[in-house]
Amino acid sequence: MSEPKYTLGQCLETAACTGCRACADVCPAVKAAGDGQLSALYRMQGLKRILGARDLNDEEWEHFAGTVFRCTLCGNCQEVCPAGIHLKDLWISLRRDLTATAHSPKKIDMIKKNLLGSRNVFDEDNEERADWTEDLDDEPEDKLCRDCAEVVYFTGCTAAYFPVAQKIPLALAEVLSAAEVDYAIMGEDEWCCGFPLLGAGLGDLAEEFIQHNLDAVVKRGAKTVVFACPSCYAMWLEHYPYRERGLRILHATQFLRELIEQKKIALKELDLTVTYHDPCDLGRTAHEYDAPRDVLAAIPGLRFVELPNNREACNCCGGGGNLEMVDAGLSADIARAKVDEVLSTGASAVVTGCQQCVRTMLTFAKRNKVPLEVLDIAQLVKKALKD
Ligand code: SF4
Ligand code: SF4
């Protein structure tokens, strides 16, 4: 068994837990499963044993791994922890420890196999990464894969391959073209950002992906990288040395706000009432709450109502942390709670800034025949584009 990989700070943080239960009260997994053993509080007890004697038997290891991986990594526990414990980092360290000691769920092995074999999380042919561009109104011969551009749009695995999510890059590409942005996508030269490896406890393997993607962007002469996926964006923000390579990175909501402020996008009136779901990695991780709201406010006629739990307190959609792979039922139960909260606002559409949130909420709404429109903000802006 390898040595545990926890920092001294993390060991001290574990001792600082007061048992106040604030983390359990906001945890979407605890609420959806009605199981307190999925809480940060419960997990901290197991972590103390791991940091001490590591005296868990096989059954206890397996049970403990079940709580650590049945978590969306939404960060809501960390947001409310009065002791200031960096809980999300702890969950990632725990996953690394459990994976290194062969205690992670079997399905986690698939992430490693897919990423190392195909360079995308779904084990699709990476040469088909730009095939979604064939559905653009004016199909570009080069599939938008240009060798030189000011802006690179980093598509991400979900948007590149999932038909439901492909509507987002299609919409964003139309908006970028309407704003006459000099942009390119990288097609097969784009690899997964590496975020799923972190969630699988395999963060060490992400380095190759980081270097590859940075080189691919830099060789195109781009200065700006734009992401519609908050997890790709957060991965770059926290783990890519992008500043050293002379790059600035923006989430699509920030880039759209810039384009609107620079009057490069003209918007028409939309008669629609919407609410907004803050994606965990854009909100609690990257602390970007205003850009999407500024974009919504710029659309004439649009009526906006906040969710009861918004900004830092926004409830996860159920789509994060590789949870869908480990426990699809729990992921859907979390999505149910989210959709119920959306419906309580009376809005006819929920807008977000994440392809995985769109996919999770839309899949639940469709399967359960819930009459709810689920849109990424790029789709909404495209709807509002003046002809
Ligand atoms: S990260 Fe989210 S799902 Fe995981 S324990 Fe914390 S609150 Fe629960
Ligand atoms: S909120 Fe923080 S201090 Fe309170 S029980 Fe959870 S981990 Fe411990």
Produce the secondary structure layout.
Blueprint: H1 8-16, H2 22-26, H3 28-33, H4 40-51, H5 58-69, H6 76-80, H7 87-100, H8 107-118, E1 151-154, H9 157-161, H10 163-178, E2 183-184, H11 195-199, H12 206-218, E3 224-227, H13 230-239, E4 248-251, H14 252-261, E5 273-277, H15 281-285, H16 290-297, E6 303-305, H17 323-326, H18 328-343, E7 349-352, H19 355-367, E8 373-376, H20 377-384
Helix pairs in contact: 5-7, 10-19, 10-20, 14-16, 18-19
Bound molecules: iron/sulfur cluster (SF4) (2 copies).
Shape descriptor reads globular
The CATH architecture of the largest domain comes to 3-Layer(aba) Sandwich
Q: Spans with pLDDT under 50 lasting ≥5 residues?
A: none
Computed over alpha carbons, the radius of gyration is: 21 Å
- Class inferred from helices and paired strands: alpha/beta
CATH topology of the largest domain: Rossmann fold
Instruction: Quote the average pLDDT.
Output: 95
Report on this model:
By secondary structure, this protein is of the alpha/beta class. The protein has helices spanning 8-16, 22-26, 28-33, 40-51, 58-69, 76-80, 87-100, 107-118, 157-161, 163-178, 195-199, 206-218, 230-239, 252-261, 281-285, 290-297, 323-326, 328-343, 355-367, 377-384, and strands spanning 151-154, 183-184, 224-227, 248-251, 273-277, 303-305, 349-352, 373-376. It has 3 domains: 8-103, no CATH class; 108-259, Rossmann fold; 264-384, Rossmann fold. The chain has a 4-stranded parallel β-sheet. A 4-stranded parallel β-sheet has the order 6-5-7-8, sandwiched between helices. Helix 13 links the parallel strand 3 and strand 4 (248-251). Helix 10 (163-178) packs across helix 19 and helix 18 packs across helix 19. The protein is globular and about 65 Å long. The model has no long low-confidence stretch (mean pLDDT 95). Bound molecules: iron/sulfur cluster (2 copies). One iron/sulfur cluster (SF4) binds at residues 26-29, 40, 71-77, 87-88. The site of one iron/sulfur cluster has 13 residues, from helix 2 and helix 4.
